[in-house]
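**User:** My hope is that you can spare some time for a protein that puzzles me. As I understand it, each token names a local backbone shape. I would be glad if you read both lines and explained how they fit together. The protein I mean follows directly.
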Amino acid sequence: MEALIFELKTKTLAYKKSPNILKPVNDEILVKVAYSGICGTDLHILKGEFPCNDSVPFTPGHEFVGTVQAIGPQVKTFKIGDRVAVDPNSGCNLCKCCHTGIYHHCSTGGINNTIGIFRNGGWSSHAVVPESQVYLLPEDVEMSLAALSEPLSCLAHGWDIVNPLKVGANVLVSGAGIIGLLWASVLHLHGLRKTVTISEPQERRREIFQKMNLDYKVKSPSELTETDCFCIAIDCSGSGPAMETAVKHLSPGGRLCIFGCASPKAKICIEPFQVYKKELKIMGVNINPYTFSQGISLVQAMGNKYLSFEKLGIKTFKLSEYREAMAALKSGEISKAIFKF
């Protein structure tokens, strides 16, 4: 067994190997991990900028898929050999938030108990997870593409929030990292064509986006002019300045969707008068409540036409190559790194 171990107190990530294999108990499932992604949130965690397990060292990784290797005695739905994806999020099922269908705001569950952030996750050859958070993959879904199920499930939640979004709507997507690329793909899948603009400061990321051939405009933020007006701006960067720029380009009745994970210390400055005058709205998107199955369905619908690793600028690495993966991701050389076991 191999795994990456993160310790918040020292902000250190270490690669370790062990002859021991985890064993599931009760309703747990042992997943032999096939692919596990590095998310922007993970980078915030490694820098100590995002809440995570601060009591003991743990294995990060909340985006992963694999096969069932062993099951606990109470598992009834899955069998050994099943191809599965793991939803890292859950609720306590006892509080008011859980009982009213918003478990992502649960004070003990939600983002406060996430696999790979508070519990051991998928940056490991094996992971033990509750049966209730495991999803069977359709036979026609490639395992590698299924590694994008979790981020796409968050997009599915975001899609529900930003709708109605009609064909012909002028849309600004801020940031051409992997989340911006996935948002652009989902917009294209739903019929939006020439009215979408991507704003991205990094030339390399703009080049990656152009290879997707979605027939969208792509500009650096400095190239946006006063004539560029949008009914909705979807921020995928987590950057305060990018959000401020987006607000300035919203048309009357416009909406800002804050999707990208920002540092908890990030701030934006907006003019309340403009919010009042133009009747603007600001919307947040928090993880993926009850949309993980939709994320898998998006993978199935989009396939290699939209999710080709080559088109999206995704590169796979061995787990032991984690330093190279992090460096390539931070430099903008690639849009996303995924560990392949």
